[in-house]
């Protein structure tokens, strides 16, 4: 009796993409809902240097955008980042 095709091992998602999913899940998906690094630290329980590193990598890929508002730097997931998150769930 055949049980179907063998199940492949789960694919490991890089930590910066897990971080991108967290930003998406907390709703930082447009400039009006963008978050500062301190706010991101509260939501993700990550250290600021780690957050800055992830944000830099994700910005280079076009998945996160920097919003400058009232001399404050905030970040949100870009449209391309939202698409990336959705592909990770499918």
Task: Summarize this structure as a short list of keywords or feature phrases.
13% strand, alpha+beta, two-stranded antiparallel sheet, Arc Repressor Mutant, subunit A
Description:
This protein has one domain: Arc Repressor Mutant, subunit A, CATH 1.10.10.10. It contains 4 helices and 2 strands. The protein has helices at 15-25, 37-44, 48-60, 79-89, and strands at residues 64-69, 72-77. Strands 1-2 form a two-stranded antiparallel ribbon. It is globular, with a radius of gyration of 16 Å. The model has no long low-confidence stretch (mean pLDDT 88).
How far apart are the first and last residues' alpha carbons, in Å?
Answer: 30 Å
Strands across the major sheet, in which order?
1-2
Q: According to CATH, what is the topology?
A: Arc Repressor Mutant, subunit A
Q: Please, what is the CATH homologous superfamily?
A: Winged helix-like DNA-binding domain superfamily/Winged helix DNA-binding domain
